[in-house]
Structures are given as structure tokens and as C-alpha cells.
What does this fold into?
Amino acid sequence: MAKYLLLKHYRGAPAAVNDVPMDQWSPEEISAHVQYMNDFAARLETTGEFVDGQALAPGGAWVRYDGEGRPPVTDGPFAETKDLIAGWMIIDVDSYERAVELAGELSAAPGAGGKPIHEWLEVRPFLSAPPTITE
Amino acid sequence: MDEVLLRSLTPGVLAVLVRRGADFAAAEDAVQDALVEAVRVWPAGPPRDPKGWLVTVAWRRFLDATRADAARRRREVGVEEEPAPGPAAAADDTLQLYFLCAHPSLSPSSAVALTLRAVGGLTTRQIARAYLVPEATMAQRISRAKRTVSGVRFDRPGNVATVLRVLYLVFNEGYSGDVDLSAEAIRLTRQLAAAIDHPEVAGLLALMLIHHARRAGRTAPDGGLVPLAEQDRGRWDTASIAEGIAILQAALARDRLGEFQAQAAIAALHADAPTAEETDWVQIVEWYDELARLTDSPVVRLNRAVAVGEADGPRAGLAALAALDDSLPRYTAVAAYLHERDGDLATAAGLYAEAARKASDLAERDHLTRQAARLNAHHRSR
It folds into this structure.
């Protein structure tokens, strides 16, 4: 088993096919979208492939050390220029192929008009600790 | 080591002790101890006067044993003679623990963790899970808090207001994991109310009971937020509401108003209305005026603007809102609501979407996004 991080982006990713901002959807479409993601996570829990999922707020800042005795430097919450992560799901699956299959399924969550959004998701493998070898 | 010499000296040493007034059994024990000591130290440094050495050591042993025995007897007699601790004393101890755990030198999160640990009796693991942090992190937080208050002595009564603030923080964390912090906060506040006679403690307990009673109606089956006006009032716990209101009325009758009693009064007016339309908004605005006088909090004035909007119409609400700082949390959501009530749906939809982006929890964000979507859909269909 290997862990993969599925990342949703606020911006920075290529545009989704069904690219309509969420506040232009109907309330029922929003509920259906949220329900789809919850069902997806619940199903992965039953298969033992779910690890964690969290949503992130849109604001974020880059922060850097700026030398002894000085406050850290930040670029401020200027979200317009940034690639921002909207949330993640961590899965623990048998193969890369399975991770891609699940990410594809999550990307098919319904959006405006009840049609899949086809949004781009990022799939990142976790670097794992080296195996313990005892001889 | 000359054992023959030791054996020959023993009776003489024993006799000296008995002559000096030691009872025989005690004297013999003391001499035996002295002999053991002699076997241990003589090989390294034999005494010039072996009998004198044994008498000195045995007599000291006898005195030590007698003193320890006398002290033990005094303690035993003391336990018999002192009155048993009564229930009042035990309650006072708990009270000091509340004050200690809410000590001003602690950060709010440390005070909360220490209160749950020391007063609530929760395990570190339970507290960690309730706050979604690793157990090791919470263990560190708690031991740091314990170190911070380790030297604190209570020679003056603690500050009840600080304790109440800590308990209210616990309550507002709500439910997560295997511990229901709201229920825990109610339990601790009940215990505090039993130990101390203070109208604000009663006010906080009433407030918690009434809020908690409405919890089942606040969330939809899918976890979404249900606003007060749309809640199924049949799902509210009427027994809890009745208890809260009775506690509040008894507290208000004592005429020492404080912020928790005023907040509880507002919650009681909401809980008392059979439908949202029958809410007594005029009285609620009056309580907000009291609350603003007591706390001077901008959050209170923001809530007051909503109540004014209901009592005197959305224009009056917007006027009250205009006097406030627009960077307040939920300011945008309140502005959206009042604009919608005023019929300006396009402005309201934009503000709801903006408020959704600023929301700090998922249920609230989804709720605000749905509000924006509802108005946008309405807008498109016209």
C-alpha cells in the first residue's frame, strides 16, 4: 500500500470543463456536489483506502525568515497571484493506477446542471520512510 | 571482627539503657541495631572504647525510635480527635481547583486543557481527540500549564469571571470525537453552580442549557447548517429549555445583571417563541442594549443590528450596521441578510458569496454559498 495526496485547487490548475463558479450553481447542485464527495470518502473508508480529508480556506501567505531579530517576511494574503489549495484527501491504495482511478472518479463530482465538473485534481505520492531491514 | 568481644559487651550495654529508663524490649531492639552498625563500621575503624561506642549508638537508636513512636501516636490521636471533613470543605477544594485552572497566567487554550484534565477528569487522549491535536502535543500543553501554576497559592478568592470564560470556551468547542465538550461544560458549570452562589454562574448555566437544547435542530441530516428561523422547533429539548429558563429567572430576580444572564435572556426569548415569526424582537433588542452596556463588544453590536432589522425593518438594521467596523467577523453575512430582506437581491448575492469566502468553518461556508446560489438562481429566472 502506498499513500497518495489528492489536491483540489482554488486556482492555478487548468480550467475545469464545466467551469462555473459555485455561487452560480443552484443550492441543490451544491448539496449534490458535497454529498458526492462525502459518499466517495465514506466508500473509501469501507474499502480501507481512506486516510484523511480536509478543506482549506482560500486565504494563505508565503512566509520566510528575514534574519536575526526581525519579524518573518510574508507576501500578504494576495490570493489573486497564487496557486491555492482548496482541500485534500489522502488515500492509501495498492497502486498508482488505483490512485489515478480514484482521482478521476472524484473529479467527476457533479457541478452546475448536475453534470460532472471535470476539474483537474493533483495526485502526489507520499515519500515513505525507508523499510526496516533485519537480517 | 571480634564476635566474642561483642557478645560479652552486649549485656552491659543493655543494662545501661535500662538503667537510664528505657523499657526492656525497646532497649534490646536498640542494642541489636547498634551491634549491626558495629559489624558494619568497626572493621574500617575500630573504636578505642568498644563499650562506650555501643552505649552511645544504642542510646541514640532508642531515642530515635521513641521519638518516631511518639510522633506516630500524636498523629493517630490527632486523626481521632479532629472533626471529620464536612461536605462544605470538599466543595471549597473543588472551587479552588476551578480558580487554579483558570489562572490569569495561563493562555486560554492551556486553561481549557487544564480544566478538562483536573476538574473534568478527562484523559489527555480524550482532550487531544476533542481538539484534534496529537496526544503528545496535548500532554505537553497540560504539563506546561501545570508548571505555570505549580507555585500559585490561594490567599484570596479567585476571579469567577475568568472561570466562566474558560467554561464558555469549552462549551463553544462543541462536539467532536468521543467527548461531547458542550455536555462536559454543562456538567462542570452545574458543579460550579452547586459550589458557589453567584448569579452569573447561574446565567452561564442557563445560557448553555438553552443553546444545547436547540442543538438537534441546528444541523440538517447531511451536516449542513439550519438557520434559527428554519429550524424544526419540535426537535428542541423542551425540558432543558424549561430548566434553563427557571435557573435564569431565579438569577435575574437577584438583580445583579451580568453578560451571561443577558445572553441567556436573549436565548430564552428565542427558545420561548413557538414559531420564528412570533419571536419578541423588540424585547431582544432591549436585552442587546443591556449587553452592549455591560460588555461594549462590537460582536454584540453586530448581533444587535440583526435584531434591530427584525424589530424595526431592514433599513433600520442597515443603519445600525453602518456604524460598525466592516472587518468584524460575520459583518458581510449580516449585511447580505439585511440587503436581501430589503429586496436588493443582487447586492445580497454578491455579499453572501464574499461572506462564504471569509467563513471559517465548512458548514457555515456551504450555507453561505447556498444562500448566494439561491439568490443568483432567483435573479437568473427573472
Q: What stands out?
A: The interface with chain A takes residues 222-224, 349, 352-353, 356-357, 359-360, 362, 365-366, 369-374, 376-377 of chain B (CB under 8 Å).
